[in-house]
Specification:
Number of helices: 4
Order of helices and strands: HHEEEEHEHEE
CATH architecture of one domain: Sandwich
Radius of gyration: 35 Å
Structural class: alpha+beta
CATH class of one domain: Mainly Beta
Number of strands: 7
Strand order of the largest sheet: 4-3-6-7-1-2-5
Strand content: 25-35%
Mean pLDDT: 81
Shape: elongated
Length: about 170
Amino acid sequence: MKNIVFVLALVIASITAACGSAAQSAPATPSDGPSAIATRSPEPTKPLALTSQPPIAAPTRVSWAIDKGAPDDPAHRVLFELYFDGGATGFRVIDAAGQVIVRLPIAGSGIFDQSTCMAKARPAQSNPTWVAIDDATYQRIAANWASYRVEVDTIAVSAVTLPLTDSGCRQL
């Protein structure tokens, strides 16, 4: 019986030693470390078809107007306004030589009473933006607008170029 216990102890010691040396000689894998934690792949909370938005169409038309600027503006600038359909992120009014006359970002909200072009001339279903310009820029636009075009940075595509049309409204 002593021999069996001795043989059994020898076998267990051999197996333990073999496992220990195999573990030492085996290359470490990313799952060997304590940072390896089994994670599940994220699951969408809504079906993908319901969370997708249709693309926002690029503008197809742009018209302009002029409103009085802020009464306390020491430079006495006027507001150059653009009215457009579709989605846009910015505008550049360009002359025939390709020179930028004025840049317009998308404006925030504003308060415009019923006497303004924003209330009178803004086409239905259009978006407005505006920027304050000096008198020299206004005179240049008023004299040459028919030869200008507008480069529109859009949401759907990189940019579109449209003719600049006149709303006819000037509230000075």
